[in-house]
Amino acid sequence: MKQLSYLSLLLLLTACKHSSKQAPGNTGIDHSIDYKASTYRFFMGQTIDSIEKTVDMAHNYLADDGMVNDTGITHYMTVMEELIKLEEDNECLPALFITTDKKELTEFRCSIIFTPASRDSAGLVAFFSKIALLFNHLAIEENKKKLATRHRLDIPNAIYSEQFSIDTTGRTTDALFIYEKKRSTR
């Protein structure tokens, strides 16, 4: 019986070694990407090959001098996400941008240009309520209010910088919403 336990443990360790490209274990650090988390299940360190099985990413050749670099840094993007209906005649489209290093996800960004019903705090909270299905952190009312008033919401994380922000600089009617997660430079 003892040999069977050792054999089971050995098989389990071997299986874990071969599945090293899966989401990191319970280390107390959140590696997940908070964009369609229950659908896409993206995480920092995930391979581009795995991501492309879920989302059709295109090489962002303008950011990479036209070359894909599987042994270094490469940028990808997509604008193939579903439109988000804000009001009867107002829709917006999420654009996704990722950066890989040696084919593993190191940065994720979702940008949405939108025209809020109003640019005050209530108008921004209404927009966040519309996109809360895409971001778990925006399902929390306190987070929506902080982001609407401060135009920035930082999510505490030991090794990653995770942030939601709103940019209205130079914009008269629309705004730019950004969700970004990348390795922290702290």
Summarize the structure.
It is built from five helices and nine strands, in the order H-H-H-E-E-E-E-E-E-H-H-E-E-E.
Total count of strands: 9
How many distinct helices?
5
Specify the structural class: alpha+beta
Largest sheet: 7 strands, antiparallel
Q: Report, as a whole number of angstroms, the end-to-end distance.
A: 50 Å
Supply Rg.
19 Å
- The best one-word shape is globular
The arrangement of helices and strands along the chain is HHHEEEEEEHHEEE
Poorly predicted tracts of residues: 1-22
- Placed side by side, the strands forming the largest sheet appear as 1-2-5-6-9-8-7
Beta content comes to: 25-35%
Helix content: 10-25%
**Which whole number gives the mean pLDDT?**
85
Q: What descriptors fit this protein?
A:
186 residues, 29% strand, two-stranded antiparallel sheet, single chain, seven-stranded antiparallel beta sheet, disordered N terminus, alpha+beta
Structure description:
By secondary structure, the chain is of the alpha+beta class. The protein contains 5 helices and 9 strands. Strands 1-2-5-6-9-8-7 form a 7-stranded antiparallel sheet. Strands 3-4 form a two-stranded antiparallel sheet. Strand 5 (95-101) and strand 6 (104-114) form a beta hairpin. The longest helix has 17 residues, at 2-18. The radius of gyration is 19 Å and the shape is globular. The model is unreliable at 1-22 (pLDDT under 50).
